[in-house]
């Protein structure tokens, strides 16, 4: 349960030349750490992993390990749709200071459930640190079915699942059938409270980049059984959560971070910075919910 609570799927700040802004990354890590974040997730999709190079991913990891003021656990995104290349990347990664990897379901090539099992088994066999599966069918097309998760849960090096399938019945089935020591983490920021209410253990959050304290309180109220307080916070993010993804992730959350002065809002093509219309809607929503003055 090292990863119980709130993990932040860190964005990757860029400067105006679209190079990594390490000063901005330091401010972001300090900001979410001071806000009560339980662990850091480096190089997830929210970190624009599709458009950062292997060398940049390694530099982001190295920097985060060196600038981690509260010595929070670190989960590193390391997945893909070419199993052999993922294994090469594992072999080339320095895992000193890394507590687990987050590995996404293979995307685009649409493997069968048997192929998914073979893929993750190969990764878990090769990884020197524990593996957390990541199911996000809205991006990968393929859904990791509960029976597949349960079979993979039998691997000694696969410790948990981040799930963003947005299907409450699937979440309930996994909570009912998963081993008691198997970590279940929400990938849906707007479903954290109902997921915890049926037995999930926390969230890897996009929203917590800009609102770490609010999301820490939301999650831990729920984990400690204060569901009225947790629900009140969850409701405050419902409309806001929709806005965040109106122009693709992490466009919205980067705009929020820019509004709060943490880091810039630049993203790499094919994504574009938030439109002026979206920026105004986000600012209005943040003010309405009391997130900014």
UniProtKB/TrEMBL annotation:
GO terms for molecular function: 4-hydroxy-tetrahydrodipicolinate synthase activity. The active site is at 134 (proton donor/acceptor), 162 (schiff-base intermediate with substrate). It holds the Pfam family DHDPS. GO terms for cellular component: cytosol. It catalyses: L-aspartate 4-semialdehyde + pyruvate = (2S,4S)-4-hydroxy-2,3,4,5-tetrahydrodipicolinate + H2O + H(+). It comes from the Bacteria. Its EC number is 4.3.3.7. The record marks 45, 108 as: Part of a proton relay during catalysis. It is found in: Cytoplasm. GO terms for biological process: diaminopimelate biosynthetic process; lysine biosynthetic process via diaminopimelate. Keywords: Amino-acid biosynthesis, Cytoplasm, Diaminopimelate biosynthesis, Lyase, Lysine biosynthesis, Schiff base. Its main location: cytoplasm. It is an enzyme of class 4 (lyase). NCBIfam families: dapA. Belongs to the DapA family. Catalyzes the condensation of (S)-aspartate-beta-semialdehyde [(S)-ASA] and pyruvate to 4-hydroxy-tetrahydrodipicolinate (HTPA). This is 4-hydroxy-tetrahydrodipicolinate synthase.
């Amino acid at each position: 349960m090292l990863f119980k609570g709130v993990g932040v799927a860190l964005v990757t700040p860029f400067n105006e030349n679209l190079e990594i802004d390490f000063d901005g990354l330091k401010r972001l890590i300090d900001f979410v750490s001071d806000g009560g974040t339980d662990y850091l997730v480096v190089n997830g999709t929210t970190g624009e992993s599709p458009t950062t190079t292997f060398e940049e991913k390694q530099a982001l990891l190295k920097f985060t390990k060196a600038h981690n003021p509260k010595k929070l656990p670190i989960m590193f995104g390391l997945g893909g749709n070419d199993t052999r290349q993922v294994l090469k990347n594992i072999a080339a990664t320095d895992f000193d200071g890394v507590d687990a990897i987050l590995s996404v379901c293979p995307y685009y090539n649409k493997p069968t459930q048997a192929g998914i099992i073979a893929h993750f088994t190969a990764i878990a066999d090769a990884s020197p640190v524990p593996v957390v599966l990541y199911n996000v069918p809205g991006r990968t097309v393929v859904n990791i079915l509960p029976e597949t998760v349960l079979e993979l849960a039998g691997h000694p090096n696969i410790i948990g699942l981040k799930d963003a399938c947005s299907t409450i019945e699937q979440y309930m089935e996994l909570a009912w059938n998963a081993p008691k020591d198997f970590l279940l983490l929400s990938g849906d920021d707007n479903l954290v409270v109902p997921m915890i209410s049926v037995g999930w253990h926390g969230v890897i959050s996009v929203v917590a980049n800009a609102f770490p304290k609010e999301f820490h309180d939301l999650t831990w109220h729920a984990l400690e059984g204060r569901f009225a307080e947790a629900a009140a916070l969850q409701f405050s993010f419902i409309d806001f959560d929709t806005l965040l993804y109106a122009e693709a992730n992490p466009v919205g959350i980067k705009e929020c971070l820019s509004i709060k002065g943490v880091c810039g809002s630049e993203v790499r093509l094919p994504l574009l910075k938030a439109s002026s219309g979206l920026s105004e809607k986000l600012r209005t929503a943040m003010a309405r919910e009391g997130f900014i003055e």
